[in-house]
Amino acid sequence: MSDFHPTAETVPAVPGAYVLAVALDRAAAGLPPGRYLYCGSAKGPGGLKARLARHMRKGKAVRWHVDRLTEAGRVLGAWAFPGGDECALAQRLAGAGFPVPIPGFGSSDCRVCESHLLAWPEGAGLPWEDESWT
Ligand SMILES: [Zn+2]
């Protein structure tokens, strides 16, 4: 289980991984309108809290591929996984059947995952909302 954070206020300032939920009302960054899940990690100063605050802030300089998504869309919030691994999260979602809209999106440094961005179809339950998920 993981708590959902609509803002970065309640996110712990520790290293770990996160899944960011973003809604696109119109096509942007090569993606059609829809809901998306981006798996990332934060290991620097401020940890998850600082990274998620950056994702949720508008008007930032576009540094990463995902910045184009968060600038164009609405960040709905994020799940934080202190000590977690972004690749494990991405692979868990892909394994649960979440589609990969753009191979390589957000995972250019990663040789294991097809993508760190997955589409979130309406009605699709998230693996970590299952009590048995660890
Ligand atoms: Zn990966």
Write up what this structure looks like.
By secondary structure, the chain is an alpha+beta fold. It has one domain. The protein has three helices and five strands. A five-stranded antiparallel sheet has the order 1-4-2-3-5. The chain is globular, with a radius of gyration of 14 Å. The model has no long low-confidence stretch (mean pLDDT 93). Zinc ion is lined by residues 86-87, 90, 107, 110, 112-113, 116. Residues 86-87, 90, 107, 110, 112-113, 116 line the site of zinc ion.
Q: What layout of secondary structure does this protein have?
A:
Layout lengths: L3 E2 L10 E9 L9 E9 L4 H10 L8 H8 L1 E9 L3 H10 L21 E3 L15
Antiparallel strand pairs: 1-4, 2-3, 2-4, 3-5
List the total number of helices.
Answer: 3
Write out the distinct hetero groups bound to the structure. zinc ion
What's the end-to-end separation, in Å?
7 Å
Strand proportion = 15-25%
Average pLDDT reading: 93
Helix-strand makeup class: alpha+beta
The overall number of domains is 1
Shape: globular
Helix content: 10-25%
Main beta sheet: strand number and arrangement? 5 strands, antiparallel
The count of strands amounts to 5
The largest sheet has its strands arranged as 1-4-2-3-5
Strand and helix order: EEEHHEHE
Uncertain residue segments: none
Radius of gyration: 14 Å
